[in-house]
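REQUEST FORM: STRUCTURE PREDICTION
Request ID: SP-0412
Submitted by: Lab K.M.
Chain count: 1
Length (residues): 143
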Amino acid sequence: QVLGREGPFPLILLPQFGGYWIEGTNHQLSEAPESPLTPATSTRARLEGNHTAKIYRKHFLGKEHFNYYSLDPALGHLVFSLKYDEQEHLHLLLPTRARTLHDVVPISCLAEFPNVVQMAKLVCEDINVDRFYPVLYPKVNRV
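STATUS: Completed
RESULT:
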């Protein structure tokens, strides 16, 4: 439809009904542990996996969760993901340059409900930021 019209053409095409899309998400998730692939030859090959992506797919992708970002002077750019589950736990994910930190915290163990910075400090005490900003996506309201 867009290309059928006269130019200039938009640089970004938003989904028809708002929201966003993620390419390459035709993953089949299972609770069974993944079996390592063994090469057919006698040579042993080491297959690397992206640990952060596996955690994100298992606990966050396709489920209601929140993403935040910030810039820490020592740790660099941070993207912090959190999710509340039906068992009243907080799932927290914080990838840094050095490592990926992931934790599950029962809400009942908290004296008061923490803000986003306090939640991030539950998984990494070294965080030195005043604020995390929500990651938002454009939503189109059609009239």
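NOTES: The helical segments are 51-59, 116-123.
Reviewed by: T.R.
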